[in-house]
# Entry
Amino acid sequence: MDITLNNGVVMPALGLGVFQSAPEETTAAVESALATGYRHIDTAAAYGNEREVGEGIRNSGLDRSEIFIETKVWVSDFGYDETLHAWEKAVGKLGVEQLDLLILHQPAPDRFRKTIAAYKALEQLLADGRVRAIGVSNFMPHHLQELLASTDIVPAVNQIELHPYFTQPDVQAADAEHGILTQAWSPIGGITFYPGWGEQRKNVMEDPTTAGIAQAHGKSPAQVMIRWHLQQGRSAIPKSTNPARIAQNFDVFDFKLSSEEVAAIDSLDTGNRNGPDPDVAREERFALVIPEA
Ligand code: A2P
# Structure
């Protein structure tokens, strides 16, 4: 299933995510996904596995043009020149000459001017043909407003935390208003059960509503959640390093949720974020230095 972005570039809606995929597992996960039929991989400079993603792509034997590569610029590389250089680092590690989609990993509330300068560098990279599309991640409506007021090109994508327990309808509406595609990170709610992200979170994978819908279709809760994203026109990038689950997450094109089922899943929204608040500066994390290629 393909989605046409606001600049005409076509992107496979469903991709493999590699957040928290250890570098030593990433190459195999990417190879496995590409063998399964995935043609979109989402990584980030801050994940520390761009090199392994590139290796997996090369090992697949597929032509570069068949694969949609998305990566992200980390906050420590925000600023005009810094972000131009971040592109060099990314393509060097991935071993490619052009990126399909390059996005800002999150707004930096303590240096929003540098965030804007970083986006202007993305615009330049786009003009130069070094990337095919540009976008943002974790931008709330007020960040989008500020960005749109001071830049020329509307982001193609806004990648945000989005799973049945946190659907951010206000952000989805703001994206839609501007023709920005909403892309879900943690689309099957990994952030609700990843260890080390705070205690007492409700695990969306164990939700009884989703489980009931899954049972009715002979599918798993993860497959139901992925289908829920796709039917609502979103892009989703579920992460797995397990070949059986990588395959399962792609096996979502032979069933359809009813509008009642979609609405039932929508109604699970708690309004509570599990990941980092994009309005809070995280000094230590922001200081992460992205190595040269
Ligand atoms: P694993 O890599 O061992 O498969 P998200 O992308 O929403 O953050 O979710 C990622 C988490 O969900 C990871 O812990 C991943 O573990 C797990 N996962 C991925 N696919 C499935 C699936 N089909 N069923 C259950 N867990 C899954």
About this structure: The chain has eleven helices and ten strands. Residues 17, 186-191, 205, 220, 222, 238-242, 245, 248-249 surround adenosine-2'-5'-diphosphate (CB under 6 Å). The chain has one domain: 2-269.
